[in-house]
Amino acid sequence: MTDPLALALSQLTPVLEALGIRYAVVGSLASSAHGVYRATADGDLLAVLAPGQAVRLAKALGRSWYADAEMIEHALCNRRSFNLIHIPTAQKIDIFPATSDFHATQIERVNLIPVFPGDQQMLFRVSSPEDVLLAKLQWFREGGGVSDKQWSDITGLLATNQDLDFDYINSWAARLRVEDLLDRALAEVASDSSDAG
């Protein structure tokens, strides 16, 4: 295992599972796992964590991790993300606490699949392609609609995943108020496809 982020993630996820903390790999790692590879400097996880679990998590991670229990507890109380740093590899993992119905659904629908190219044996709980798409639409909107990287991930997911469940996607897109962005992305992918043909 040569990828330092893969090593860090492989050290973190068994700890989460041992503590009964359900998680999903999200963000660019998840979109990469579903066919839209993009190099990333850190990893993003969505996790079912509640205030009061910070000390247990920090203790379980041990000396190989920078995990500030007070900072984690403060983040959880404020329903905000926090980061963990794997000291041997200097890799950062951002943890986003599950705080919404959509987050809960993402956790329920994870796929156990490889994340890192060249290592098909190392499997992680990864957000489904539909949920990655919806989350990225949401992040794109919340970020002011200016991130070329997020938009490229969105159109890439649509272009490379031909069997997406659009009943599910359309239902959640309406609830998350990103239908217009979804329509725009679909039109762009269709246009690119016809130009290529």
Q: What does the model show?
A:
The protein has 197 residues and is α+β, with helices and mostly antiparallel strands. It is built from nine helices and seven strands; from the N terminus they run H-E-H-E-H-E-H-E-E-H-E-E-H-H-H-H. The protein folds into two domains: 124 residues, Beta Polymerase, domain 2 (2-Layer Sandwich); 67 residues. 52% of the residues lie in helices and 16% in strands. The strands form two sheets. Strands 1-2-5-4-3 form a five-stranded mixed sheet, with helices on both faces. Strands 6-7 form a two-stranded antiparallel ribbon.
SSE layout:
Layout: H1 4-18, E1 23-26, H2 27-33, E2 42-47, H3 54-61, E3 65-66, H4 69-77, E4 82-86, E5 91-97, H5 101-108, E6 111-114, E7 123-126, H6 129-142, H7 148-160, H8 166-176, H9 179-196
Parallel strand pairs: 2-5
Antiparallel strand pairs: 1-2, 3-4, 4-5, 6-7
Characteristics:
Beta Polymerase, domain 2, 52% helix, 7 strands, alpha+beta, 9 helices, 197 residues, two-stranded antiparallel sheet
